[in-house]
Amino acid sequence: MNPDIPTHPVSLGWHAVQLGGVLAAVLCLALCALPLRPRAASRATLALARHKVLGWSALAVAVAHALLLPFTDAQVLEHYKPSLPWYELAGFAALALLLVLTVPAADAVRRRIWQRHRNFQALHVICACLLVLALAVHVGVTAHYTHGLPRTAVAVGLCAAALLALLRPRGTSRAAPAPAASAALVFGRHSRLVLVVILAGVLALGALFVPRAVLALHESVLQRTTALVLDFPHEKHREVACVTCHHNFTDRTGSGSCIACHRSERPDLQAGAEARFHVFCLGCHRDPPPPLKHQGPVTGCGSCHSPPTQF
Ligand code: HEC
Ligand code: HEC
Ligand code: HEC
Ligand code: HEC
After folding, report:
1. What is the pLDDT of residues 182-204, one digit of tens each?
2. Which ligand is nearest to the CA of 261?
3. Ligand 1: does its nearest atom lie under 6 Å from the Cβ of 69?
4. Are 8 and 296 a contacting pair, CB within 8 Å?
C-alpha cells in the first residue's frame, strides 16, 4: 500500500476484530514453532503448560474474531452462508481444526481416546499442518494485510517455517544431529505420513503466488441464487481510464453492463462474478497503480454493497 494514498475511513471495530484474527493466526504459527517437549523432565512441564495456554488463547481469539465480525459490518454474514467463497470456508475450517487440536487434547479426554501417545501426537501434528494451510489460505486470500508480492512472500515464508518447525528433532536422543527424515521418526509408524503431509503443505503454499489459484479460491462453494445490492460510484473513478474496466469497449466481448454479462451463463467466462469483481475491484483499491492519488474502500463490505446513493 502506498503510504501517500489516503485510506478509506473504516470503523475501528472492524480493524480491531480483523487484527484479532491475525493475532489468532500468529498464535497458531507460534504453537508450531516454539519447542514443546524436551523430554528432560523438569523443563517439559513448563513448555507443555505454555503450549496449552497458547492453544486455548488462540481458540478464544479465533472464536471472538468469527463471532464479532458480523457486528462490525452486517454484510459479512453473506460469507457465513453456504454460498461463501473457498477462502472464507478455509477460515471456518481453521476454527474447526483449532477445536480438534484443543478440546480432545485436554489430559482427561486425550488419555481416554488415545492409548498410545504417538497416535495422538501424529494426528495432532497433521491437524496442526492442515491448520497452518487453512490459515494461509484464509489470511492470504482475504488479503487485508497480505496483498502485494513482498507481503505475500513474508506470510508464506512464515507459514512454511512453521510447518517445517514441526519436523524439528525432539526427545532425549543426544545421538548425532538428526536429519529431517529421522527426526520425524518420533511419530512412530506414522512418521512417513506426517513427513508427507508437511512437505505437501509447504508445496501447497506456493499456490498463493499463482493468480489463477487465488481467483479460484474466491469462487463460491455453492452457487448463489440471490443477488446483492451494489453501489458502484462511476464519478469516483474519473481518474481511471474507461477501458481499464470496460475491456469490452475494445475487445469485442459484447456490450451491456459488466455485472449482467459476468453473471450470465456465457461459456467463455472463466470465473464467477463475485470472484472476478472482488479480485479486480479490490486489486486496484489495495495496490493502486502509480498515477492514482486516491484509494477506494478496502475494508468492510457495506462500502460497496449498500443501496446506491441517490443524487
Ligand atoms: C470494492 C468493492 C467491494 C467490496 C469492498 C466487497 N464487495 Fe462483494 N462484490 C463486489 C462486486 C463488484 C461484486 C460483483 C457484482 C455482484 O455480483 O453484485 C460483488 C459480489 C459479491 C457477492 C456475490 C453477490 C451476487 O450478487 O452474486 C457476495 C456474496 C459478496 N460480494 C460479498 C461481499 C462481502 C461479504 C464483502 C465484505 C467482506 C464484500 N462483498 C466486499 C464488490 C465489493
Ligand atoms: C473502475 C471501473 C470503471 C471505469 C474506470 C469506468 N466504468 Fe463504466 N461502469 C463500470 C461498472 C462497474 C459499471 C456497471 C455499474 C452497475 O451495473 O451498477 C459501469 C457502467 C457503465 C455504463 C452503463 C452500461 C450499461 O449498459 O449499463 C456506461 C455507459 C459506462 N459505464 C461508461 C463508462 C465510460 C465512458 C467510462 C470512462 C469515462 C467509464 N464507464 C469508466 C465500471 C467502470
Ligand atoms: C458482454 C460481456 C462482458 C461485459 C459487458 C464485460 N465483460 Fe469482463 N469479461 C468478459 C469475458 C468473456 C471475459 C473473459 C473470460 C474471463 O476472464 O472470465 C472477461 C474478462 C474480464 C476480466 C478479466 C480480465 C483478465 O485479463 O484477466 C475482468 C477483470 C473483467 N472482465 C471485468 C469487467 C468489468 C469491470 C466490466 C464492466 C466495466 C466488464 N468486465 C464487462 C465479458 C464481459
Ligand atoms: C484501477 C483502479 C480501480 C478499480 C479497478 C476500481 N476502483 Fe473503485 N476506486 C478507485 C479509486 C482511486 C477510488 C477513490 C476515488 C476518490 O476517493 O476520489 C475508488 C473509489 C471507489 C468507491 C467509493 C468509495 C467512497 O469514497 O465512497 C467505491 C464504492 C468503489 N471504488 C467501488 C469499486 C468497485 C465496485 C469496483 C469494481 C467494479 C472498483 N471500485 C474498481 C480505483 C479503482
Report:
1. 444 567 788 889 999 999 999 99
2. 3
3. no
4. yes
